[in-house]
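Dear Dr. H.,

I hope your travels went smoothly. While you were away I took the liberty of generating a structure for the chain from your last submission, since the lab meeting agenda had it listed for discussion. I wanted you to have the full record in hand beforehand rather than looking at slides cold. The sequence, exactly as received, is reproduced here:
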Amino acid sequence: MATTSEISRGCFIRHNNELLKVIEYDHITPGKGNAIYSLKCRNVETGKQSEVRFRSGEKVDLIRVDELDMQYLYTENDALICMNQETYDQIPVPKTIFGDSIRFLQEGMILTIRFDDTEKPLSGDLPKHVELPVVYAEAGVKGKLFKIAQVEGDINVQVPLFVEMGDILKIGTEDGAYIERVIK
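The corresponding predicted structure, in token form, is as follows:
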């Protein structure tokens, strides 16, 4: 058991027999009374978001998490088959732990996957950005700053007017936003 002062963004806690990942937290000090920790959390199993509040100094059940880099091999039903880079074990990982960023998944990509002490996958991240070629770019309209371009994988991205078909773009996997044009 830990106290509320040890809570940080990205940590895992068990609350009301549910495993939660802390997305955001805020330390609130009202004018009168004790301080409060307000946590915005995501349930690891259902994906639902909720808000949890703790009084300052309250005991919290922090979960120890192991983080591994694993290589994505192929998809089987609702799971990604990933290979441990050190032991070469192949482990099925649920697609749902990656959220919306799963649309940027590419074969052979190295993923960061977090496991609890029972070896159950809790969460996962793709690399921070991917490089994808533009397969379609609409014509720019004078007076506008951005236009829509479609990159490999049928993903639409808002890009500057100078982007053309065939360009390779660096795109953030967390929000799907254009970062820069890659010049090779």
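Two observations you may find useful: The CA atoms of residues 3 and 59 lie 5 Å apart. The domain at 129-182 is CATH 2.40.50.140 (OB fold (Dihydrolipoamide Acetyltransferase, E2P)).

With kind regards,
E. W.
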